[in-house]
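User: Hey, quick favor. My workstation is busy. Could you predict this chain's structure for me?
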Amino acid sequence: MSTIGIRGTFFDFVDDPWKHLGKEQEAARFHQDGLLVVTDGIIREFGAYDTLAAAHPGIAITHIKDRIIVPGFIDGHIHLPQTRVLGAYGEQLLPWLQMSIYPEEIKYKDRNYAREGVKRFLDALLAAGTTTCQAFTSSSPVATEELFEEAGRRNMRVISGLTGIDRNAPADFIDTPENFYRDSKRLIAQYHNKGRNLYAITPRFAFGASPDLLKACQRLKQEHPDCWVNTHISENPAECRGVLIEHPDCQDYLGVYEKFGLVGPKFSGGHGVYLTNSEFRRMSKSGAAVVFCPCSNLFLGSGLFRLGRATDPEHRVKMSFGTDMGGGNRFSMLNVLDDAYKVGMCNNTMLDGSIDPVRMDVAEAERNKLSPYRGFWSVTLGGAEGLYIDDKLGNFQPGKEADFVALDVNAGPLAQAWHQSLIAEDGRPHTVEQAANLLFSVMMVGDDRCVDETWVMGKRLYKKN
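Assistant: No problem, here it is.
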């Protein structure tokens, strides 16, 4: 056994800040001078340095100075084979897929290309402070194999699976439901729960899935109930109309997945921009999760996700945040928080009565406002809860995996350090409120240059030059 200590300033969460209206700091935990004791990649103890250090004489301690250490970021929705084409110009979802995305994803049939793409993908995640992701691969098993293999070598927590699509895509990209089922069975046996890999049964979206493909997904879920289900839902108006044409016996998008028994715990639907109130309530009741992807929703012109509706305490929906790279034009969850805040503020204005008094809903308007507590909870412990992996990671609770990020709150744009001196003259937080305010500036003014170090299972895998 190998035991190490990490000393520094720590900030994490023990509860959901949306449950603590007006007192969100009660959901957070802050140690100005803390100690994280890690044995073989698992957190053994966590608390104040002065309290714990004496109980662990002789252990090697790495002191990370002048940084705020937070749990590793969790990206709930991202596309491995779009790494090279992020930021493709000028189209909404469906033509963008045809023009820019499918031609690139087809290349991942080639193992050498897929292998290089995977390495670049995981390098970019670590540089952005992301230690866990739920990722789409491609319709070829090669991409899934290479992702799980490389993630295993780095000991990263990854949820992924073969992406199923059998219509509304190029002929050389789609595959049959029979092949999808056969290849998925093999991949589940080979990778699910092997190391830190977790398998997601992955119909790309209902617009690209025939009833037979969704029946194959249903059969896989019945045979492997501990697997995840990862897909898209209600992203774009043209897509939503197309889904009901493809599946005319269903009344709404969620109903397609419900028909085939896919909706429930461990189900993630990315985007959810056009989910109805009924769909939100049904997702809440079933334990399904939605993934908020603001960067992509804005970049592709898809629309504004109703964050305040998803966080309705009467029908709360589990939720993680995602970059949706390459629809999202950044790898960084900090950029996700930046755009999520702006989406929330637009929603807030539309609901506060200043535009249309008839639509006024003061409580929902407030729930759209993304404070630093709500934001950083959403990309750490909240994201873990949304993906049903909060028993494994998401905060610094003993027994969990030691994935974390050291943030330089003064890095990023040239103006950042001077701005931060308004909050803490010496640039260091002394209270939980100061830490939260510094982190808000990281998410709104900073960028991935604020990520100084990224650690996975107690080992540093990234250090900014």
